[in-house]
Design a protein that fits this description.
The complex is a heterodimer of chains A (432) and B (307). Chain A is an alpha/beta fold. Chain A has eleven helices and 19 strands. In chain B, the strands form two sheets. A five-stranded parallel β-sheet of chain B has the order 7-6-5-8-9, covered by helices on one side. Chain B has a four-stranded parallel β-sheet with strand order 2-1-3-4, with helices on both faces. The chains are: A alpha/beta (432), B alpha/beta (307). The structure holds zinc ion. Zinc ion (ZN) binds next to loops of chain A.
């Protein structure tokens, strides 16, 4: 066992400075003037401590596209971003639609050891949308999958969606829907509106997302199931979720950092680093998403970290794959858009980036998402909110470089991350 | 001006300069036995055509040749383009060949913008996806000015598949820059969501907008749009939005009829309209040559036209 760590003068959730002693993987003591008991003393002078972040939506690309990302490189990016758990999306090659594949991803995560990797299982065989995958086998596997998603594809058959919602109740699972009515988005390249009209790029209408959310909350209500909505991107989606929650539907939702900050006018560059699905929307949508996250209508921030090889982005907009990196800058974007604007305090951030996602995805069982109190597992991060830095794609831990934030000055720096008391990041550097 | 990617790259002064230069090109060539000016001797112009468009390709080739430039044409057929080489790799190859200008036609919107980030030479957009076709708009403006004597205050009605039309987008931008009043007419399905932000009037009714028009520009409408429910049938389309002899009779006496070609006779335009004295379709082709000469000349900063 390591001698442990005594963090002196740490501001839990940005509040008054205290000392925090980490020992044997747990937070042993919180208080003032703590004694080290042989632990390494780390005088953190005013850094903010938050519970380790939990990402409900990460593309680690392994197996299949190890040139774009691996479980190891993605884990490193996650730890550097302050995450202690990530949910690995199922759209790998082979697809994570069997117990074998989800166990493989889970094992790779354990071997790397920088974050807990919780595989997401596919809802349908091969993400094909026509036949349920063996959800129970994935749930019973060593990976103990609880979240299922055909992300990248919408489960569009309403009867199949209904069955999936019902079926996973047997083991406390949840269906995470990528809401996209695909008949309305054939050939779509960007948000449909003023900018798509000018740029001659086929539009992705907001209604294509909202129509599926409306359908799915009604289905979830009817069968009494839990539904999670991936990466909501429109003002209308926020309104629908607010309505559904008001009716008592058991629905949760996530928003990505990029949808909290960026807008569709960036497509005017035709640089596909801004191409993502769902697409960047308008400033009105951004405002509604921030408001929805602030009032809790949107439960979680999830990155949709989507690494892509250079050749899949250094091409024509129409030929490029959608998606952008997110893990390393997520907390900075949330600080910029939600904290520095006064819409969330650090407790609010902890709720939306740790507690609620841990409950939604089931990683509470592994000690994620808890409060920073004595006796809790020592999953936490230390943040310096006062520094700013300019994003340099070359410095990112991901194997890919498709960050939309290149050259932007962003606030906040993750100084350290602890996973069950073991530092995965120290002084801003990954420990593996 | 380094590139011509969008008609919006041209302010009023720059656009007028292109049109005036095109007129000078015409004048300089008139009466010459050898239709050639020495202004771009030693310069290399590459035509990079990812999409079949014989008329635009030939027009650019001829324009470059008449300015004495060396011309290389890469077509989608028979070059590395069709073997799946990336646009970026092609750009680097052109770079190595020392292309002074790259004229690019591509099925994807924005491809010329990407290319412009990777090559040192000038990039001319010869039509990109459903985005723009700026030299078409320039030749259209040139034709209008030649026929009607002005562009300021001219009432131009653009009719047809505005949603998918790069010709419409470039014309709307250029004509509004030059002070014309543009109306777009189409079934609502063939207008983009967001068209309300364009500097145009929008109408669904062709008959209403014809009497006040100085120029009617008919856009090509592909019959296949029917299968995606943009309209019920070609017959219904041409009944509501096609320009036939009856409708042509509603036009003011001086009004002209334009079409960027290739035409679907019997669909958006009736044969007797296409072949009437109002039609500028043949002039548009020859004006295209002068305008493209002017664009290449101005981008590459050639020697004096009169030289
Ligand atoms: Zn998705």
């Amino acid at each position: 066992m390591t001698p442990g760590w005594l963090l002196r003068g740490v501001r839990l959730y940005g509040e008054a400075p205290v000392d925090l002693l980490i020992k044997d993987g747990v937070i042993a003591e919180v208080g003032s003037g703590l004694r080290a008991h042989g632990a390494d003393v780390f005088d953190v002078g005013g850094l903010v401590a938050l519970p380790g972040l939990v990402d409900l939506h990460t593309h680690l690309r392994e197996p299949g596209r190890e040139d774009a990302e691996t479980v190891t490189s993605g884990s490193r990016a996650a730890a550097l971003g302050g995450f202690t758990a990530v949910h690995a999306m199922a759209n790998t090659d082979p697809v994570a639609d069997t117990a074998g594949v989800v166990e493989q991803v889970w094992r790779l995560g354990r071997e790397t050891g920088l974050v807990d990797v919780a595989p997401v299982g596919a809802v349908t065989v091969g993400l094909g949308g026509s036949q349920l995958a063996e959800l129970g086998a994935m749930a019973d596997s060593a990976a103990r999958v609880r979240m299922f998603s055909d992300d990248g594809h919408c489960v569009s058959d309403p009867a199949l969606m209904r069955r999936a919602l019902e079926y996973v109740k047997a083991f406390g699972g949840v269906i995470a829907q990528h809401a996209e009515e695909h008949r309305l988005t054939e050939g779509a390249q960007m948000n449909e509106g003023v900018h798509s009209a000018r740029l001659g790029l086929t539009g992705w209408p907001a209604a294509a997302e909202e129509a599926i959310i409306a359908r799915d909350v009604l289905l979830a209500e009817h069968v009494g199931s839990r539904l999670h909505v991936c990466h909501v991107s429109t003002a209308g989606s926020v309104e629908l979720l607010r309505w559904a929650k008001g009716r008592g539907v058991d629905v949760t939702a996530e928003v990505t950092p990029h949808h909290l900050l960026l807008t569709d006018e960036l497509a005017a560059t035709y640089d596909p680093v801004y191409k993502v699905n769902p697409p960047l929307r308008t400033a009105c949508d951004v405002e509604a998403l921030r408001a929805g996250l602030a009032d809790g209508t949107i439960d979680a921030v999830a990155t949709d970290h989507a690494p892509h090889a250079v050749e899949d982005k250094e091409c024509e907009w129409g030929a490029a794959r959608p998606g952008m990196l997110g893990l390393q800058q997520a907390l900075s974007i949330v600080q910029l858009t939600m904290v520095d604007t006064g819409r969330l305090d650090w407790r609010g951030v902890a709720d939306r980036m740790s507690a609620r996602p841990a409950r939604i995805g089931g990683t509470v069982r592994d000690g994620h998402g808890g409060d920073l109190v004595a006796g809790a597992p020592a999953n936490l991060l230390l943040l310096d909110p006062a520094v700013t830095s300019v994003v340099d794609p070359a410095e990112l831990a991901s194997r890919s470089r498709n960050t939309p934030y290149a050259g932007r000055e962003l606030p906040g720096r993750v100084v350290a991350t602890f996973l069950r008391g073991v530092p995965t990041v120290l002084d801003g550097k990954a420990q593996a | 001006m380094k590139h011509l990617l969008s008609a919006a790259d041209l302010d009023r002064e720059a656009a007028t300069l292109v049109l005036d230069t095109a007129a000078q090109m015409d004048a300089a060539l008139a009466g010459r036995e050898v239709k050639k000016l020495p202004t771009l001797r030693g310069r290399t112009v590459v035509n990079l055509f990812y999409e079949d468009s014989t008329r635009t390709r030939i027009s650019f080739e001829l324009a470059a040749k008449r300015l004495s430039a060396d011309v290389i044409t890469f077509s989608a057929k028979g070059s590395s383009v069709s073997k799946g080489e990336s646009l970026k790799d092609t750009a680097l190859t052109l770079e190595a060949m020392g292309a002074d200008a790259v004229v690019v036609r591509h099925s994807m919107s924005g491809a010329p913008h990407r290319l412009a980030q990777w090559v040192r030479g000038s990039v001319v957009n010869a039509g990109d996806g459903t985005h723009e076709h700026p030299t078409q708009a320039l030749l259209d403006a040139f034709t209008m000015r030649a026929r009607l004597g002005r562009l300021e205050g001219l009432r131009v009605t653009i009719v047809g598949d505005v949603l998918h039309s790069r010709v419409a987008r470039s014309n709307v931008l250029l004509l509004s820059t030059l002070g014309a009043e543009v109306t777009v007419v189409a079934p609502p399905t063939l207008l983009p969501v967001g068209v309300d932000a364009w500097p145009v009037e929008v109408s669904f009714d062709l008959d209403q907008s014809l009497p006040k028009a100085d120029v009617v520009m008919m856009l090509r409408v592909q019959r296949e749009r029917m299968s995606a429910s943009y309209f019920p049938s070609p017959r219904e389309y041409s009944r509501r939005y096609g320009l036939d002899a009856t409708r042509m009779a509603m036009l003011a006496e001086h009004a002209i009829v334009m079409h960027p070609g290739p035409m679907n006779r019997g669909m958006e335009i009736a044969a007797e309209v296409a072949d009437s004295v109002r039609s500028t379709i043949v002039e548009q082709v020859s004006n295209g040559l002068s305008v493209r000469m002017a664009v290449l000349y101005l981008l590459l900063g050639g020697a004096e036209v009169a030289a």
